[in-house]
Amino acid sequence: MKSVLIIGMGRTGRHLASKMQELGNDVMIVDKNPAIIEALSGRFTDSNICDCTNDAIIKALGVDNFDICFVTIGEDFQASLVVTSLLKQFGARMIVSKAKQDIQADLLRKIGADEIVCPEREISEKLAVRYNADNIFDFIPLTADYSIYELPIQAAWIGQTLSGLNVRRKYQINIIAVKHDNEINPNVGPDYRFREGDHIILIGRSNEVFKLAAKM
């Protein structure tokens, strides 16, 4: 369990707060809009109406006591910069700030953010990859070059073993699990024999995975 401070209750902040609380963490939410906090106070007992661009407010919140401080302020990027800077100044252990553009991300890093999230861009990239090929069911980026993908198997794979197909050499991918009827088997050995309805969870480069997906 972690103690979490979330500043800014726009869409990103609300979803983040709900999920962090669902996962069993102690969550404090903050927004300067009384109507927003009043609407959320029934779900979050630890909530505050305050303007975190005020250094006295940041100090009073005791930000150094939280494991993670999230800055999810929506449209007011200047406020996001000020809050991120103040969090750093008052000893926040971990600062995660939201950005919409690369230049915003660079500025937030320079003034103290430990990590930057770009929800709109990340969702757009994921959607683009997901719908670029009909047979890509899920996609998790790892680095600029490699990602995790979920794909159905080719019909010709049914009844064949993983070692017999030699997919690493043929397709330059690494299968890390097999999914069947929504159950994942992460211990796939070379003797695993593929069944109808199997999906593979793999790590690979986008261009190689798209080539494979086109054959599914």
Automatic annotation (TrEMBL):
Task: Give the Pfam families listed for this entry.
Answer: TrkA_C, TrkA_N
Span of domain RCK C-terminal: 134-216
What positions does the domain RCK N-terminal occupy?
Answer: 1-118
InterPro entries of this UniProt entry? NAD(P)-bd_dom_sf, RCK_C, RCK_C_sf, RCK_N, Trk_Ktr_HKT_K-transport
The protein in question is named TrkA family potassium uptake protein
Q: Which organism does this sequence originate in? A: Faecousia intestinalis
